[in-house]
NAD-dependent succinate-semialdehyde dehydrogenase (Ferroacidibacillus organovorans), 481 residues
Amino acid sequence: MQLGEYKNYIAGVFTAGEATETFDVLNPATEEVLATVSNATPGDVVRAVTAATDSQPAFADLPAHERAAFLRDAASRMREESEHLARIMTLEEGKPLAEARGEVLYAASFLDWFAEEGKRVYGDLIPSNSTDKRILVLKRPVGVTAAITPWNFPAAMITRKLAPALAVGCAMIIKPSELTPLSALEIARIFDEVGLPKGVLSVLASSDPVPIVKPLMDDPRVRKISFTGSTEVGKILMRQAADTVKRLSLELGGHAPLIVFEDADLETAVAQTLACKMRGMGETCVSANRIYVHRSIYDAFAERFTSLMQTMKTGDGLEPGVSVGPLVESAALEKVERHVQDALDKGAQLLLGGTRVGARGHFYSPTVLKGVDHSMLITKEETFGPVAAILPFDTEDEVLKAANDSPFGLASYLFTRDIGRIFRMAERLEYGIIGINDGVPSTAQAPFGGVKASGLGREGSKYGIEEYLDIKYVSLGGMNA
């Protein structure tokens, strides 16, 4: 299927801008060209930033309920067009259509949430030490912002950043992944159709992110960057942000441990682990990478989990009944193969899968490895694929130490019915997100983000909107005159 040519959305207009070239977007299920997209230039970035800077003051001065209307209208339009948007997402990213439909609704939920939360940006009146003074705290939008978004959630990772920015009055320039720019441009179309003021939003797609991101980082008019991606790139952005002292929100890599204690409800633990591990073919930053199971239930868990994995159908995400689509690109497939082979070479036992599927496309079979230990790559690096690595443990202290033995601290999970253990583990696990008897905890009203090398700041919830606000202290004197 060919979707034709897409143009970038620059300063409120769909245009090729300065681009003289296009780049191809490939369908990972067929490896065929799905669409072509105008290749944005540094000059396009300058134009977008200038338009954002010019439009920012008037947009920020709109009453919050007027800005909220744009978000609500866009959310409503996304739900109306959910089938169209989901189909495009499946075609460019690979996830099964049912999951893509779910992501569209998830993406819309951020627009709904922040449409309301933007109305509740309150300041403070602080008691003064002097009768002739009053202390006021005001909150104002940080200014022009930019978002650099990943391919694995090509709609939700945009709205999770864009919604709070617009809600408080910040203009935003979005640089989507070169692998999945179509969803981003479709979202731009929706905001254009609901009447968002020109210049407040731009979407710039490029086959090479560096020439687009560098001028965003160098431009002092861009006051904040929100990035979701690898820790390595996040560190580069931190260094680049230093020269203009930009604010940063960084949602970086993860290596999530999932712990099943001996008192867990086994059926719930197996089902929730499967949901956590296999969402998006395991290509998520919160996917379970190390599955620790108490030795007393280790074999029973592995057997039941493998049986469930075996029922999952691999294929093109548009085909009925498919629950495992292709990986996003050949490099992702090669990394999964490398991790599995390394584990097998070091003594892991293959219970299921372990092979490519089909002659074309980036398909890998649902895979279960037992007898995994910490000498293996799969326990140190994000696999980002449909591979479950199961490790045994004996004591709470032992598994806590193993779970925390990682530079990353994004998401973790545990399954137990012991309330004391729940509190002990929640307080001691070095992770920003902890799912307890819950393998899919993400939601618009909760703060999403990590600690350690997994990033800075939070997205979603009342905490996420604070990332786009500056606090102003006003000391008001002469009150007794």
Residues 5-252+454-473 form a domain with the Aldehyde Dehydrogenase; Chain A, domain 1 fold (CATH 3.40.605.10). The chain has two domains: 5-252+454-473, 256-443. Residues 229 and 252 are 5 Å apart (CA to CA). The chain is about 40% helix and 20% strand.
